[in-house]
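STRUCTURE:
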């Protein structure tokens, strides 16, 4: 199987990510001018969701339609996966019928097994370990507002989760630094951290992590699949809300991002997420444009418009 996949951000080089950011801008500008761009006519995307989604699903489905193709949505419960069909067999079958597949699932090993048996590109739409489509859109959003992220400092406040892990991968590829502040017991996975050594620093105090940052970002205290830990997490993260005091530690022109969905009064104060430094709505919209660029690249390769 020789298809190119997007299972982790590090599947792409800095050059490929730069190309995708350029394509995202081009595709977004055309879309804003209501100019049709349909390089994926007669192409099909299959989406497999084993967890809930608003942004990822709408961005992929609307994006695929806008590019001239169609998207098929498969929830786990509607498929034979729920009755024990092996993921390898599902991959073999689906990939004979469509041109590209997106999967949102639990362990990264599940998507790796799918990709190993797929004839067509596979996109990670979120796993317990990574969320590369999110960080593609987030970094594009940073570039749109502030220019290159190389050499900048991103403060991560909260859980050492899938979104945090992907920020660390991005820092290693694109040459910036992440200040990570997690409560004890919720640190970055040691193996993932080791692969990104030199590109992040850990802090016990989130205020210190935010000091001098160009971007402050956080995420839910309890990710999908970890609901049983919710009560313990509410206690552990109680002092980890990004509020106006925390934002004042960062640079005066620092941006605030959150992948959404957000819980005001938990991981972020309303005054921050609804305040002037927040770019969360641009970030969410850019999921559409960045994922269209990703689909175009995986199905068509590099194009010269
Ligand atoms: N940020 C994100 O992936 O949102 P959804 O869970 O709604 O897709
Ligand atoms: N870390 C969150 C992100 C949701 C988009 C989760 O995995 O539930």
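SEQUENCE:
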């Amino acid at each position: 199987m020789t298809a190119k996949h997007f299972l982790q951000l590090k599947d792409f080089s800095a050059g490929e990510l730069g190309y995708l950011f350029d394509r995202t801008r081009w595709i977004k500008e055309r879309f804003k001018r209501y100019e049709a761009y349909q390089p994926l006519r007669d192409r099909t995307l299959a989406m497999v969701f084993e967890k809930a989604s608003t942004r990822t699903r709408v961005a992929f489905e609307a994006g695929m339609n806008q590019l001239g193709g169609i998207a098929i949505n498969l929830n786990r419960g509607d498929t034979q996966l729920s009755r024990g069909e092996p993921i390898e067999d599902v991959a073999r079958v689906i990939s004979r019928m469509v041109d590209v597949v997106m999967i949102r699932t639990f362990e990264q090993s599940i998507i790796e097994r799918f990709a190993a048996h797929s004839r067509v590109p596979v996109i990670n739409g979120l796993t317990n370990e990574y969320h590369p489509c999110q960080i593609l859109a987030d970094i594009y959003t940073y570039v749109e507002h502030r220019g290159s992220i190389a050499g900048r400092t991103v403060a991560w406040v909260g859980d050492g989760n899938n979104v945090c892990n992907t920020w660390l991968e991005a820092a290693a590829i694109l040459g910036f630094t992440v200040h990570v502040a997690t409560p004890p017991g919720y640190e970055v996975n040691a193996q993932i951290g080791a692969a990104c050594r030199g590109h992040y620093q850990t802090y016990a105090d989130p205020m210190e992590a935010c000091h001098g940052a160009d971007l402050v970002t956080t995420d839910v205290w309890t990710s999908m699949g970890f609901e049983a830990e919710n009560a313990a997490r509410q206690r552990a993260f109680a002092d980890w809300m990004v509020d106006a005091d925390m934002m004042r530690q960062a640079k005066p022109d620092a941006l605030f991002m959150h992948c959404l969905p957000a819980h005001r009064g938990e991981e972020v104060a309303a005054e921050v997420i609804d305040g002037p430094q927040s770019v969360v709505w641009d970030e969410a919209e850019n999921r559409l444009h960045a994922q269209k660029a990703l689909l175009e690249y995986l199905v068509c390769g590099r194009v010269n418009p």
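REMARK: Residues 5 and 11 are 7 Å apart (CA to CA).
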